[in-house]
Amino acid sequence: MTEVERLVMLYLFLVGCIVGSFYNVVGLRLPVGESIVKPRSQCPVCGHRLSAWELVPLLSYMCLRGRCRVCRAVISPLYPAVELGTGLLFALSFYVYRWTGDTLLLLVLVSLLAIIFVSDVRYMLIPDRVLLFFTALILLLRLCFLPSEPWWDAFLGAIAGFALLYIIAIVSRGGMGGGDVKLFGVLGLILGWQHTLLAFFLSCLSGALLGGAALVIGKVERRKPVPFGPFIVLGAITAYFFGESLVEWYMRRIG
Ligand SMILES: [Zn+2]
């Protein structure tokens, strides 16, 4: 790795933290019909409007030790987690794919997933406007910077993702939300059909493992619906970064 590439990684980490902070705002406000540019964020408990330095990603949370400066109410760790996660994944994207179209596509994927993560955890909702915006962006990227795989793989992925989740939604009678179905269609555009199926498998696996663990330690109540979005995020990211090696490993096992 060259000096310049190290600098780009650091730069992407910082950019990721900053846009991650914006994705928090988008994920929190868009589903309830609020503007994503104005007004500035405020403490949900006392209404204190955050000053410029209180909006600095990660650092402000650490300086304030996770509490509102005025009323000392606890700030949700969701915000710094999304900022840090976006920053780390932006840097990792470049580390793995360097100067290729895949890096760009991955930055878009991480952005989409960050927003979905926030709105799904908060409202159990995946906004259509976010999905539409990213569908347009992904198609544009696919046209401009053709990544390595053939173009039809993206469309096959979209159809596979949508159809699979649609069938499961019908069979499970509402166990899978409409937002999840549409999201998998969009993910298919990025992942291609093989990695879409893998992402779905990994989402279910992590959901079963982590959901089961949460039940055992009494973190969630049985019968209370759990958002599936965070597991989709986990599955899709893993499929993108490790998909190739996982599919290869599986093929060797069955072959
Ligand atoms: Zn407050």
Automatic annotation (TrEMBL):
It is found in: Cell inner membrane; Cell membrane. It catalyses: Typically cleaves a -Gly-|-Phe- bond to release an N-terminal, basic peptide of 5-8 residues from type IV prepilin, and then N-methylates the new N-terminal amino group, the methyl donor being S-adenosyl-L-methionine. One of its GO terms (molecular function) is aspartic-type endopeptidase activity. GO terms for biological process: methylation; signal peptide processing. Its EC number is 2.1.1.-, 3.4.23.43. Residues 107-211 form the Prepilin type IV endopeptidase peptidase domain. The keyword Protease applies. Pfam families: A24_N_bact (PF06750), Peptidase_A24 (PF01478). It is a multi-pass membrane protein. Belongs to the peptidase A24 family. This is Prepilin leader peptidase/N-methyltransferase.
